[in-house]
Amino acid sequence: MEYVYAALLLHSSGNEVSEEGIKTILDAAGITPDDVRIKALVSALEGVNIEEVLSRAPAAVAAAPAAAATEAAPAAAEAEEAKEEEEEEEEAEESGIEGLGALFG
To answer: Contact at 8 Å (CB) between 25 and 10?
Structure first.
């Protein structure tokens, strides 16, 4: 996320969004820059009208919490299912151990 912030900072200050600029900002912030990520970001932003994207951003930001909640619900359900399966496996192991005790008891 800090890479995107650096690009936005460059853009808002009227400077060209470049690899060197992003690297300089990250260095100044005490972040070790990753050249591959920087190149990928600069490449992805080529030909993008950042002003236009930013003008549409408030609608996207307002929708983000709802989207996050929608995405979080299935993840929570999957975690609950995994927990239930683990508990069932533990119960099966315990009952197996009890059965062995009856054989030798």
So the answer is: yes
Q: CA 10 to CA 19: how far, in whole Å?
A: 11
**Mean pLDDT for back-to-back runs of 10 residues, the chain (105 residues):** 90 91 93 93 89 78 56 63 70 58 55
Model confidence pTM above 0.70: no
Query: Can you give the residue ranges of every domain in the chain?
Result: 1-48, 66-105
Contact 22, 3 (CB under 8 A): yes
70-95 b/e with 16+ CB inside 10 Å = b?
A: eeeeeeeeeeeeeeeeeeeeeeeeee
Note the CATH architecture for domain 1-48.
Orthogonal Bundle (1.10)
Phi, psi of 90 (to 5 degrees): -65, -40
Would you give the DSSP letter of residue 105? -
Other Cβ atoms less than 10 A from the Cβ of 25: the count is: 20
